[in-house]
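Predict the 3D structure for this chain.
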Amino acid sequence: MRQEVRTEFAEREGTRIAYRVFGTGSRDLVIVPGIISHVEYAHELPGYDEFIDYVAPHFRVIIFDKRGNGLSQKIGDLPPTLEQRMDDIRFVMDAANSKQATIMGVSEGGSLSALFAAMYPDRTERLILFGAFAHTPGLERLHRFPSFMHGFLKNRAMKKAVARVHKTWGDGSFCRSVLPSRTMINSELRRKCREFERASTNSSDMGKMMSLLSEMDVTSFLKDVRCPTLVMHSHDDQLIPFRYGEALHEGIKDSELIELSDAGHTYFMSKDKRIADAIISFATSEQAQISAQEETGRVLATVMFNDIVGSTRLQVELGDEQWRIKIRRFEAICKQHIQDFDGIFIKGLGDGVLAVFSGPARAIRCALAIKEAANTLDIKLRTGLHIGEIEKDQQDISGINVNLASRIQSVANADQVLVSDVLKSLAFGSGLSFQDLGDYELKGFDGKWRLSEASTVDA
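Done. Predicted structure below.
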């Protein structure tokens, strides 16, 4: 019999996230919800309590509402970014004293969880993706049109979707679309669907979150997921067609795919215990645990290089002693800003620094802040940032993506912060501004690389 639990709150950096913990097992299972959730009302939905009761003897099951949903902090004028969504997972794990867990991402939470697994391999023992997708379903149809039309067509499609949400939210139709195909929908279930939607969020905030969702695409980062991964997807999923689950399976090396037939878009409403059995078997496999430890030195991270413009000339003008004083002050500024933006200072380079960050937007903001602070020392910087998998040990980092960030820095002009296109793709909704500078040839790298100059919106 499941013991009653109360809702707790993870409070950090001005953010308040509601979560609940069930069970006392030695392993942790963190369930990352989709675009709607409510940790208390979910118990009213059919099959939810049965699922919790069934898996709780094997885990500590940690379930939470992302910001903007349920009992968690409401959103403001802008929807939470992908980076902030990943912070929600970390904050809850820290509050629940979970050092490492199996992360189970559902629907939109699956894209988020896959990226989290790549960026935080030390926190992710295994990954389970249920009814998930790498990019917003349907947007691939844009490729039938010329590329110059993509932005216009996507914005038009999202405006229609948001208008539909504003009109129908709270009538239960969205919730009903996730139900298993064999579900008998009676008046009581219709009522619960309506109440669940309204308890999760309002139509305005749902529209904002859908707009954010339209920019999400983690396809390029699936290859960086190194932990054992289980993909579960149902053929009768009305919301996210089965082919999106197949694409996740194909993109994540050595992942396992389980095909379901009548689960819909939920992991509990079909009340099929085989789903819970598969989760338990996968997450408690000792072989999976051994495999998860094989790639501990590899991590997806944002790399930042900066370089002092005209450093040799400055050193000659100032003399060795004054130059050393200026460099020490410069490195101190860099270290403080990197710490403030949750990054890691790797090393000084004599006339610049190298650092890594788990948060893409935080890395860019840090680079911009360092650039402004360096100006107070009469120093101009060239800065380059890129995201990719790196090799990381206790003292240094290496790998092709570190070299690529260095090459991006080398083509920057004074006071420019240049970012790769792939990094820019993860900073959507962050309030940063990007000026597309076109394609560049980077020494030692084949092909052309699209770069943008980053700035704050009010810059």
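The first strand starts at residue 8 and ends at 12.
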